[in-house]
Amino acid sequence: MITTTGLTINLPGASWINYMHASLDEVFSMMLGVKVTPCEGPEVTAELTAMVGLAGSLCGLFTIRCSSATGSILAEKMLGTPECEDQVLDALGEICNMLAGSFKSRIPEIADTCMLSVPTTIAGSNYHVHAHRGGQRHETLVKCDDQLLQVILHVNC
Amino acid sequence: MTSICALIVDDSSVMRKIVERSLRQAGIELSEVMEAGSGVEALAALKNKKPDLILSDINMPAMNGLEFVKKLQDVAGMKDVPVVMITTEASEAHVVEALSYGAKGYIRKPFTPEQVKEHVLPLVKKQ
Q: The pTM is what?
């Protein structure tokens, strides 16, 4: 259960992950034409990161992380051939944006009252995210054409 | 159907390319594609040319898509240009607000070319 800005969202921990997987299925099948499958495995080499903030009835951060090679492959699936690293980051930001939008639309309590930020992208891995104290972290690792993608939802309480 | 000029407004260049590709996949012949990264850039672009169709995101820096559609109604000669919102922000409140400002359609991201065809083609055929 999460209580945020006076609203109580009754979701067991597994439900957050299920909604994240449903959003991944929708975005990757419609925009990239590929299937994603949850997996377990080694840490993702997080050379590229995209983040979208959630504010309003649910506050938090939606993050996706992957290697540069994976980012290029995902951008290529969206675009054809990406022209430069900026386009790879742009594509990753848009994927994160659509994932966050798809995710919030699945939860009636927040669908109309949670706003999304524009995406922020980071190239490089030398950074730390300091999450809100007392918040929750939901994380999943998925495979897409043998490429690993880490998806994290930080929810502030 | 004659070819048309479309203005695509999105802060993501990747998404602008995807929207353009989806329009072509929908069978819409494009004589010209104008691009803008925000509502401010879009209003500036409209000073030079009147498009036949506008597709706009909502979440953008500088001026968001809802403000842009609202301001568009005050730009001389632009009231008859159909606007379709293409956005992740698909809450009922956003849809109602966009339609009240004059938008003619609403497509939620992620989308398929078929959805673009369904929402955009009737507006283009009317012209």
A: 0.90
